[in-house]
Specification:
Layout lengths: L7 H13 L14 E6 L11 H15 L5 E6 L2 H13 L6 E5 L2 H8 L6 H8 L7 H11 L12 E8 H6 L9 H13 L3 E4 L6 H15 L3 H7 L7 H15 L12 H10 L2 E7 L3 H4 L11 E4 L13 E5 L2 E5 L6 H22 L16 H10 L4 E3 L8 H16 L4 H15 L1
Parallel strand pairs: 1-2, 1-3, 5-6, 8-10
Antiparallel strand pairs: 3-9, 4-6, 4-7, 4-8
Helix pairs in contact: 1-3, 2-14, 9-11, 11-17, 16-17
Length: about 425
C-alpha cells in the first residue's frame, strides 16, 4: 500500500494510539460490560431511507436482550457533511468512539496508516465469524484500501451490470444473456432488426454514460485500470481509454440507445426496460427496489441480469464486478476490549438476516434465512455477489473533483459525436496533468 502524507490531526492520533499500547484486545477495567460509544451519520430511526441507523440500534438492543443484559451504548448522530471533520477532531484528541462511520477508500487509508482502526479480518477470524461477511464485500473493501485485510465493516453493497427485459430478448430470438461484448453487440443488432431499442441509458444524468465507458475499459484493460490512471502509470488518453470512448460513441451512432439519448434521465431509462420500450440497461443493484415493486409491469421474473461481458483479448474476467459501498463502519483499535469483541461477533453474525428480514436489504453480510416473501430480484443479486472474485470502482471514484466534473461535462458531446474519442480522452489527460 502506498504511503500517504498524514494530516496533523491523524499524526497526533497515531501518537496517542501508540502510547495506549499495541495489544489488539484490551480487557474492560472490571472484566465485565461497559458502555460503548457509536458515532453515526444515520439517524437512529431511519427505516424509510437507508435503515442503517435503525439496523445499528436494533443490533445493540438485541445483543442486550439475547446475550448481555448489562450491555449499554451511547449513539451520537452527526450529519454527513460534518462527519470527516468530526472524526479527525476526535482522532487528534484521542477521543474517538468505539464505532464510527467514515468514508471508505482513501480517507480510511489515512486512518490505517495512523494505526487507528481495528484489523477487522484478524478480529473476526479470531472470533471464528469472518465467513459471515459477504466475500464480495471483503474483496471490495480490501481493494479500496489496497490492503490484504479489511479495516471496516460494510452497511450496504451494490453490484453493477446489465439488466434486460426477458420478453424482448425472446421476441428478438435471443435465448441467453451474452457472455462477451461482441455477443452483446450482436444481440443489439438482432433487437434492432426486430424493431426493439437495444439499450436505454440516462444520458441526461451523464454518469450512466461514463459507467458504460468504464464497463468496457475494465474488461479491456483490467479491473485496476482506474487505479493505474489515478496513480499516473496509465494515461487517460492511452489506447484502452480511446477504445472505450469510441465504443460508446459507436453504439449511439448505430442507434443502440434510441433517439435523443442525452435527453433521457436514468429513472426514465429504468422504466423503459421494465415497460418493454428498451431491452437492456446498465444499472446497479439498487434497481431492485423498483423491480420488486408491485408497479413493475415486467413482473417478478420479467427482468434478468448479466455481469459486464468480457472483451476479446481483454484482461477483465467474468467474475470481476463493478461495485460500490458508500460509508462504512470503523472500530477503534485502542478501545477494543472484551465488550466490543462480544458485540462485534454478534453483529456480523446476525445483521445479514436481520436487515434482509426487516428491510429486504443486503448490507454486505451472508444471509442464511431469507423471508418467504423475499423478491426474486433480491435473491438474484445475492447469488451474483457470491460469484465475486474481484472488484472495480466506478469511473470517477478515484478522480479529483476537477477531472470528475470534466468527464461528465464532456460525455454527452462524446455520445452525440460533437467530440471525438481522441478529443475526449486528451481532455481527460490534460486535466489530470494540470490538477494532479
Amino acid at each position: 500500500m502506498k504511503r500517504k502524507v498524514l494530516s496533523v490531526g491523524i499524526v497526533l492520533a497515531m501518537t496517542a494510539s501508540m502510547m495506549a499500547g499495541s495489544a489488539t484486545l484490551v480487557m474492560a477495567e472490571d472484566g465485565g460490560s461497559r458502555m460503548i460509544k457509536i458515532l453515526s451519520m444515520w439517524p437512529e430511526d431511519d427505516a424509510d431511507t437507508t435503515a442503517n441507523g435503525s439496523v445499528i440500534t436494533a443490533m445493540c438492543q438485541k445483543y442486550k436482550e439475547e446475550v448481555d443484559p448489562d450491555f449499554t451504548w451511547e449513539y451520537e448522530y452527526v450529519d454527513s457533511d460534518n462527519l470527516k471533520t468530526k472524526v479527525q477532531t476526535l482522532a487528534a484528541s484521542d477521543d474517538l468512539p468505539d464505532i464510527f462511520a467514515y468514508d471508505a477508500g482513501t480517507p480510511l487509508v489515512d486512518l490505517i496508516e495512523a494505526d487507528i482502526p481495528l484489523d477487522v479480518t484478524q478480529a473476526l477470524t479470531d472470533a471464528g465469524v469472518y465467513e459471515k461477511l459477504d466475500k464480495g464485500a471483503t474483496a471490495y473493501l480490501a481493494a479500496l484500501t489496497g490492503t490484504d485485510d479489511i479495516y471496516d465493516l460494510p452497511l450496504g453493497l451494490n453490484i453493477e451490470g446489465f439488466w434486460y427485459n426477458k420478453a424482448l430478448f425472446e421476441q428478438a430470438g435471443i435465448t441467453e444473456a451474452p457472455a462477451t461484448w461482441d455477443e452483446m453487440m450482436a444481440d443489439a443488432d438482432k433487437l434492432l432488426e426486430a424493431g426493439i431499442q437495444p439499450f436505454a441509458t440516462g444520458g441526461a444524468d451523464k454518469w450512466p454514460v461514463t459507467r458504460l465507458l468504464h464497463a468496457y475499459a475494465i474488461r479491456l484493460m483490467g479491473k485496476d485500470c482506474m487505479q493505474e490512471a489515478a496513480d499516473g502509470t496509465l494515461a487517460y488518453n492511452s489506447e484502452g481509454f480511446l477504445s472505450a470512448a469510441q465504443m460508446i460513441q459507436d453504439m449511439n451512432t448505430k442507434g443502440y440507445f434510441g433517439i435523443g439519448a442525452t435527453t433521457v434521465d436514468q429513472n426514465t431509462a429504468a422504466d423503459m426496460v421494465m415497460s418493454g420500450e428498451a431491452a437492456m440497461l446498465y444499472n446497479g443493484s439498487w434497481y431492485t427496489s423498483s423491480l420488486s415493486a408491485d408497479t413493475n409491469p415486467a413482473g417478478e421474473d420479467g427482468i434478468g441480469f448479466f455481469n459486464i461481458p468480457t472483451v476479446e483479448g481483454g484482461k477483465g474476467t467474468a467474475t470481476e464486478y463493478a461495485m460500490n459501498c458508500g460509508t462504512v463502519l470503523v472500530l477503534n483499535k485502542s478501545t477494543y476490549d472484551d465488550t466490543m469483541a462480544g458485540f462485534l461477533s454478534y453483529f456480523v453474525s446476525n445483521v445479514g438476516d436481520y436487515s434482509m428480514n426487516e428491510f429486504g436489504s443486503l448490507k454486505g453480510y451472508v444471509v442464511e434465512n431469507y423471508p418467504e416473501d423475499v423478491s426474486n430480484y433480491t435473491k438474484l443479486v445475492a447469488d451474483e455477489m457470491n460469484k465475486v472474485t474481484g472488484t472495480a470502482n466506478w469511473f470517477e471514484a478515484l478522480m479529483n473533483s476537477e477531472l470528475s466534473t470534466l468527464v461528465q461535462e464532456n460525455v454527452q458531446s462524446l455520445l452525440n459525436g460533437d467530440m471525438s474519442a481522441q478529443e475526449y480522452c486528451d481532455a481527460m489527460a490534460e486535466c489530470y496533468e494540470a490538477t494532479k
